[in-house]
Amino acid sequence: MSNQTHSPKFTVTDVRVAFECPRLFYLSKHFGGKTLFIPPDQPRGIGKPFHHFASKFIELAKTNPKFKSLFKPNAKTLDRESISLEMQRIFYKEVFFPALQKVATNKPENVPALQQVWEGLRGLINHWSGLLVTNCFYANYNNVISETFFSQELSVTCDYPLPKQKAQKIEGKFDSLIRDLKKDRLCMVEYKTYAPIDSASQLAQVALYSYILYLHKQQPVDSAVYCVLPEFKVYYYTWEELKDTVHELTPLKLQQMRDWLQWKPSQPDPPPETNQPEKLCPICPQQETCQRYFPPLPLDRATPKNTTDDAIQTEELGKQLETILQAYGVGVDYQDAIVGASFIRFKLKPHLGVKVVSVVNRSTDIQVQMGLPNLPLISPQAGYISVDLPRKDRKAVPFKDYIQKTNNGFDIKIAIGIDLEGKLIEADLSDANTCHFLIGGTTGSGKSEFLKSLVLSLIERHTIEQVKIALVDPKRVTFTAFEKSNWLLCPIIKESDRALEFMEELVTKMEQRYQLLEKGKCSDLKTYNQQLIQQGKSPIPHLVCVFDEYADFMADQEIAKQLESSIKRLGGMARAAGIHLIISTQRPEAKIVTPIIRSNLPARVALKTSSEGDSKIILGGNHSQATYLLGKGDLLYLTSGNLSRLQSLLAS
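RE: above sequence
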């Protein structure tokens, strides 16, 4: 666990999180991870693009003479609504629409998110136009824009006085600083692309920014939160309101934050839970981790003994790892651990000058000294070295606990597994990085169970109008539970000649779909389906083809050659047509999983392999880690260069 006893540095965001939930603050500082309490019905993934375009708007307004000319008439004759519409038109034409076209070409699946960004920008521009019109009564039209938009995205720091220590270092970066010329007052602005549940924590955040700016500028600074979605709303706070309320609470909160960071699982009095558990806990971004570290107390408020004992035992194992490595002259410090379903990940910080390879080379010694049935999996991570040790009480991950019947629309996703935080990791088949999969694993690795859960996640999440599934099962036993499923495109394929014929049919379907896309002037199937629905027509389903044992079809050289040809064509072009390949094998040998196959299947899942060579063939490069997995659904997921260790779902 990180050493936080010596003057930790806090960000303004840390203060907001600590006001919302001290436990989430603790977890984020020690383990990282997300810290936003976003309601499930609120848009996600649009914060960064919104901030980007909001900044672009201010830049354009300051430099483009068209904006300045809008305010040239007498201030009394200016019409806010018409000015707002014209400002929107100019910005859309010169900045937003070119960016939208680029996204539509390269990543069309992101277009709906950008459309939401535009809705938020419209509200923001309309609000700003009103402020500019008011400011025109107090400034010349040549200067009104530059005097209104004082600055944007400013980084600030300060030493905040505390009750027990001299000061606390705080830093942050706010979104915009504007001036109301009528009030002759600066106002610090934060943008939010969602409606916050806990307005008090948002108030604490902007109040702290206001205080830091006051120290720098030696003048009062008001604060505002602009919530742009689902509808534009402004939360405005004057300096006088903040000065006598929040500013008095902040020193105490900062002192508490320092104290909380020094707590360890074996100690009493952990960081307290949020004061709004009924609202915040159900949408906590680190819910599973919080439940492991801060389990619910029984009615008598006693600490659960087994949980405390588990935490102490984990801490002892971490210290044992540290001692073993130091005995071999490898200096490391044990930081902390995360307990997953199948293994415990210990974080070790190497001393300055200690190479990662020196830790990796001691894997056999760690196995012997700690009495492990398998070699530990040791990997470099950002800021530490992870050592994964198997749990003695390994937990299954039931499918029903993570997948419920929902309608995901035309975002076709498959379940991959559960990460260390207990979060379900899914893959979007419309994404170029995860549109086709290569899966490998030896006997006992859990490959067949993984494929079943993958297929079942498609069935549970999507209707037969949204997805059709083709199953290729030469072993004839993997997919028997799906033989009568309405989601099947055709009967389960068990013969090599039929598999070859079907792949050629998929190529033909792909070409037919591209003709439809061209006729409809659409870049992909999702866009085309949206067009069909608007016209009152039935959509075209995505097609997902799952091979259980690809190697069985590679014995015949002629069949292998034809299959490779079909996979090459589909792998290179089928994504936009809504056709996806998931190909698995127990024997990921070089002659079976050829370079042509690998290059056309961008996403990889490696379950336990029988050799380091097999692991490298599945994952590429020098990724030999799959050899050291535990089997039974323990897997490595590789996409976009990122390797994650997950536990697959078990579908009964």
